[in-house]
Amino acid sequence: MANQFIRKAGLLIGDDATAIDVSNLQFSFRIKQAEVGVPQTASIRVYNLSDQTFQKIREYTRVQLSAGYQQGAYGVIFNGEIIQTKAGRENAVDSYVDLIAAEGYESHQKPINITLANGGTVLDVAKAAAAAMGRKLNVYTTETPPQLPRGTAQYGMARRALTDAATKMKAVWYYSNDGIDLVSVENPKAGEATVINGDTGMIGWPEQTQDGIRVRCLLNPNLTIGATIKLDNASVQAATFSTAYSAAVANSNIPRADADGLYRMYVIEHSGNTRGADWYSDIICLSLDPTTRGLSGIFQRYLF
Asked: Looking at residues 68-97, what average pLDDT do you find?
């Protein structure tokens, strides 16, 4: 990714019509996104707000954060609900306001109570659950959904109905902007793999871990969970095996490199400070080849 030198960030607090733009103030952030069915989270710290502005933003319920570069990639990396707003001081000079937010927080609490007629499919259940959660279902799987054996009544938490339907479709789901993405476990989202190396902003060296391959790069707003990146396998640092007898099985199941250097992103954490050093994207990814994934702590969530 070219033009990664002049940073750009935007922070809007509030609804679209009445949002307060605090982009010119110093702020730091940590955005956590994972390919699991839980709300995506954000911790944002804004420095030296006036008391009047602080009192006003306490009334708002949403926050939108954009980040990237003035002459390069730039886009929204978080748009979610404010869960908590609190003020504090770092020192005698600098005050701050912390925003704790989550994308999908309200949707996660929604119930479902519907009846589907005979002849439907598991995908119909997934769509109904997403609708009950107030979201559109974006389907990224080409597998034929199983037919329902009979009409079915769905009641309880909508997220549980969606998880059950996704499991039957060999898929996973997660919150994405204002929708819900349903992605095949075996196949990532379609599209060209993002190349991550020293020329495109990679920081340090990718590392093999029990969860998968960890890699850090300069903040890239175009990275999306469920999509693919390409790494040079020669740059991947091998994990350090434990010599304990009890660790033999764990050592043998550490996820391995993909023969083609292609990996699916399961976790992305964006962190930055508009007037500090941090401006990174940290990724945990697994090989596209299921025989080399090992028993990743992440991937096990989809199998068991």
From this structure: 94
